[in-house]
Design goal:
Layout: E1 4-6, E2 24-31, E3 37-42, E4 48-54, E5 63-66, E6 69-72, H1 77-101, E7 115-116, H2 118-122, E8 133-138, E9 142-144, H3 145-151, H4 156-174, E10 180-181, E11 190-193, E12 204-205, E13 212-213, H5 232-243, H6 247-256, H7 259-275, H8 281-295, H9 297-303, H10 313-320, H11 325-337, H12 345-355, H13 362-368, H14 373-390, H15 394-411, H16 424-431
Antiparallel strand pairs: 1-5, 2-3, 3-4, 4-8, 5-6, 7-8, 9-11, 10-13, 11-12
Helix pairs in contact: 4-7, 4-14, 5-6, 7-12, 8-9, 11-12, 12-14, 15-16
C-alpha cells in the first residue's frame, strides 16, 4: 500500500490484511463517524470477529496511512496530547465493553468477549510504530442494520421486531449492574447475526466509545453526533461544550441526558425501518405554508432543501415549526401504511411521535418521550398483536391474490375476460382460503 494522507476521513485497511497471527481482515463493516472503523475478520478457527480500529482523526499534524500503519511525520507536544486523549478514550471504551460483556442474557451482545488486541497487532513488523488501537468486539457472523435495510425488503412486522430486539439489548445496557447510556445508536452501530429470523435474532451494539454512566455525565465527555439519530438535547450539549462554549447552557442540557436520549435514537431507527422512502409532498407543502405564515419567507428558504424523510425533525421542531412534528409524522405514516394497514396508522404515529419528542423543559420532555425500554417495547407488542390478528387489509390481499390467479390462468393458457369473480372477498376465500379470513372490523 502506498502512503496516503488521512484528511477528514479514515482510510480503511484492505481485505486480506493479516492483523494478528490469529486474525485476518475480510471487509470494512462500518465507518463509525469521527470515532473509529469496524471490520469483519476471521480468526484461525474460521470464526467471524468484529474488529474496531481507532486513531485520532482531526489533529494538529498530518497523519498518513503508510501501508498498514497509521503514522505521523513529526510528533508535536499538541499531538502527543491528542494521542494521549485517544488512547485514554480507547481504554475507557475497552473498560465499558468489558462491563457490557460481563453479564446479561443470550438476547444481547453482552455475553460476547471484548478485548484490546493492540499489542498483538503491533508485534507484526507491518504494523510496528502505528498509533492505531484495535479491539475485538464479537465472535459472530452477520450484518449491520444499515446493511440489512439497504439490501432487504423489510416488512412492517420485521421492522417492529428489529426495533424490539434493539430495545432488549439497550435494556441490558441501562439496567443494573451496568447502568450505562450508549448515546450514539444508529443503523451502522447495530449488528444482527446471520441465519436467524427477526423473531429469533438479537441486536449486538458495536460502538460504545461515547458511553456514559446513567448516574453521571462527565463534564469532559465528547460526543459523536449522528445526524438523524441524535436527540436534540445531546446535540445542544455538544454545541455548548465544543462549539459555542457556554457552561450554564451545557449544565442545563447535561441534566437533560438520560435513558430517554437513547430511546430517541431507537425511535429514529424505527422510523427509518418502517417508513423507508415514503414521502407526502402535499402535507409538506401545507406545513411549509403554515411556517411561512408564522415565521416568514426566510424560514421557507432555509427549509427548502430539507426532506422530512431524512429525519431533520430538530430544525422543524425547535426553530420553525413547534407542534408540527407529530402532525408531519402522522402524515408520513399514513402515506406509508394507509393502503395496507389503515388500522395501525394512529398507533404507529403515536409511538414514533412519542419516541421523537423534544422539549427543553425537563418535566415536559420526561412526560412526553419514552423513558424506559419496557414501555416502548410494550407498545410495539400491542401493534404486533393487532397485526397478527388482522394481517394485511383484505382488499389488498384480494388484489394481490387476483394477480396470482390471473398468472396461474395465463400459465395454463386459460383465456378470460374481466374479473374471474365479482366479489373480491369471496374470491380470496374460494381460491386462497388460508390467506385471509373475513373481518368486519376493517
Amino acid at each position: 500500500m502506498a502512503q496516503e494522507k488521512v484528511e477528514n476521513h479514515r482510510i480503511p485497511l484492505p481485505p486480506k490484511t493479516k492483523l494478528t497471527a490469529r486474525l485476518t481482515i475480510e471487509r470494512l463493516l462500518s465507518d463509525c463517524g469521527g470515532t473509529s472503523l469496524t471490520y469483519i475478520a476471521k480468526d484461525d478457527h474460521n470464526r467471524t470477529v468484529v474488529v474496531k480500529e481507532t486513531y485520532p482523526l482531526y489533529t494538529t499534524v498530518p497523519l498518513f496511512r503508510d501501508g498498514y500503519r497509521i503514522v505521523v511525520e513529526e510528533e508535536s507536544d499538541a499531538f502527543k496530547d491528542e494521542l494521549s486523549e485517544t488512547v485514554a478514550k480507547f481504554a475507557e471504551e475497552c473498560h465499558n465493553a468489558d462491563i457490557l460483556c460481563s453479564s446479561g442474557d443470550t438476547n444481547s451482545i453482552f455475553h460476547f468477549e471484548c478485548r484490546d488486541i493492540t499489542d498483538e497487532a503491533l508485534e507484526d513488523p507491518e504494523f510496528h510504530g502505528s498509533i492505531a488501537r484495535y479491539m475485538t468486539i464479537a465472535t459472530v457472523s452477520g450484518r449491520t442494520l444499515g446493511e440489512i435495510r439497504e439490501a432487504d425488503d423489510i416488512s412492517l412486522k420485521q421492522a417492529l421486531l428489529y426495533t424490539k430486539k434493539i430495545l432488549y439489548s439497550l435494556r441490558e445496557m441501562h439496567s443494573e449492574p451496568k447502568r450505562m447510556l450508549h448515546l450514539d445508536l444508529k443503523d451502522d452501530n447495530l449488528f444482527f447475526p446471520d441465519q436467524l429470523s427477526p423473531e429469533e435474532t438479537f441486536a449486538i451494539i458495536l460502538d460504545s466509545a461515547g458511553a456514559q454512566s446513567i448516574d453521571h455525565i462527565s463534564a469532559s465527555a465528547r460526543f459523536s453526533i449522528s445526524e438523524g439519530y441524535a436527540a436534540k438535547e445531546i446535540q445542544l450539549l455538544k454545541a455548548y461544550t465544543e462549539t459555542v462554549i457556554n457552561e450554564a447552557a451545557a449544565q442545563k442540557y447535561r441534566a437533560l441526558i438520560g435513558v430517554h436520549t437513547d430511546l430517541y435514537s431507537v425511535g429514529a431507527i424505527a422510523y427509518r425501518l418502517i417508513m423507508r422512502d415514503a414521502f407526502n409532498p402535499e402535507l409538506w407543502e401545507e406545513i411549509q405554508e403554515e411556517i411561512r405564515e408564522e415565521k416568514g419567507e426566510d424560514a421557507i428558504n432555509i427549509l427548502a432543501n430539507l426532506h422530512p424523510s431524512t429525519l431533520v425533525w430538530e430544525k422543524i421542531q425547535e426553530e420553525y415549526a413547534p407542534n408540527k412534528k407529530a402532525k408531519l409524522i402522522r402524515a408520513q405514516v399514513s402515506t406509508r401504511l394507509q393502503a395496507d394497514y389503515p388500522y395501525l396508522v394512529d398507533r404507529i404515529s403515536d409511538m414514533l411521535a412519542r419516541a421523537l419528542y423534544f422539549s427543553a423543559d425537563e418535566k415536559e420532555l420526561l412526560q412526553n418521550r419514552y423513558t424506559d425500554c419496557e414501555t416502548f417495547a410494550a407498545d410495539i407488542d400491542v401493534i404486533l398483536e393487532i397485526l397478527e390478528q388482522k394481517g394485511i387489509h383484505p382488499e389488498v390481499v384480494a388484489a394481490q391474490s387476483r394477480k396470482q390467479f390471473e398468472k396461474i390462468l395465463r400459465n395454463a393458457n386459460v383465456e378470460f375476460e374481466g374479473d374471474p369473480v365479482a366479489n373480491d372477498h369471496l374470491f380470496v376465500q374460494e381460491w386462497f382460503p388460508t390467506v385471509v379470513e373475513a373481518d368486519d372490523a376493517y
